[in-house]
Amino acid sequence: MAKVVDRKPLTWAEHTYLPQIVGGLKITLTNLFRKKVTLQYPEERPVIPDGYRGIPTLVKDPNGREKCVSCQLCEFVCPPKAIRITPGAIPEENTERAHIEKAPQEFEINMLRCIYCGFCQEVCPEEAIFLQDTFSLSGYSREELVFQKQKLYEIGGTLPDKHFKWDKKRSAAHAGNAH
Dihedral angle at the C-alpha atoms of 14, 16, 21, 23, nearest 10 degrees? Predict the structure, then answer.
């Protein structure tokens, strides 16, 4: 047997839907005079908050030298295994990098696998890998989103070296050779 529910009869205003129409107009008018939040992308870009973790890139020191010494810590700590490094030897005649044993022959980051966790930046002892504030990344194929060393340096650019650690090592190496 069905249960009968008593309902209150509708008023005249409710029959005409006037309360709903007035409520809708009220919402429309309040939003009509609000500050616009739409950005005309890509000409206008949103403000990126501090601490935003964007795409990982390689950076050079102020003298334009590679900071990466191919220690492979970033490769080992990467949870999705998005980083792949092939170490290479540095020629002995290169006196500018006399204090370095190896450099990356190949360095690639698969941006399709990267989860932007920032572990690579945290673990890098040479401060060679940084997360940039780039938030929009696109490509026409999977291969385009596997960034090689050259592309990573193009995006990363040059960052100031807070510790001048490479210059200290180089001058210490030259001082040792002078005696």
Answer: -20
More confident residue, 171 or 80: 80
pLDDT in tens, 54-107: 899 999 888 888 889 899 999 999 999 999 999 988 777 766 666 677 889 999
Average pLDDT, the chain: 85
Coil, helix or strand at residue 153? helix
Close Cβ partners of 74 (under 8 Å, ≥ 6 residues apart): 83, 85, 119, 120, 123, 124, 129
Alpha-carbon distances, residue 148 vs 14, 50, 83, 98, 165 (angstroms): 66, 27, 10, 25, 26
Say which DSSP state 133 is in.
Answer: S
| CATH architecture assignment, domain 56-162 | 2-Layer Sandwich (3.30)
**Nearest residue to 67 via CA among 57, 52, 75:** 57
- Domain layout of the chain by residue ranges: 56-162
